[in-house]
Amino acid sequence: MATSISIWHRVRRYLRHRWHDDQVSRSVDALALERLTAAVVAGEQCHSGQIRVCIEGGLPGSYLWRGATPRERAITLFGKLRVWDTEHNNGVLIYLLLADRAMEIVADRGLARAVPSRTWETIMESMQGALREGRHEEALQLAIEKVASLLQEHSSGFERVSNELPDSPALGPFRY
Predict the structure, then answer these.
(1) Inter-CA distances, 30 with 11, 33, 36, Å
(2) What is the pLDDT of residue 157?
């Protein structure tokens, strides 16, 4: 009995994630993407940090098969999108996984040393209401604002370098 529940859970999760693969452009339209890009640009004006937003509909099948979490995927995309590759090691990835209504924030080592993990968790918890209600843009805007504030507080001592990461959100599905 427990095995059939586990299998049923996996099948339901797989179907939910495949359905959400096509939902990214419906959940965050072109105007919302422009507003999110503008928020990243504005948020990066007062500090040397870099913010990268990533939106994915569902996890790839290999992640689902092994029961991976949204956090694992966010860490992978942090590397694949080269958020770690900034001059002062203060890049931040804000990752939204539509299928699980989950948001993750991954900070590079320069910032992770300065900001307690509980601070990042508090930011993510504050987005949960908007995510549950499908207000994805609102949740992302709030995350960008809070991350920019933290970056201003913790990376203002560094010399501002040119824009090192794209400001527009990266949209899935990603095949890695």
Answers:
(1) 32, 5, 10
(2) 62
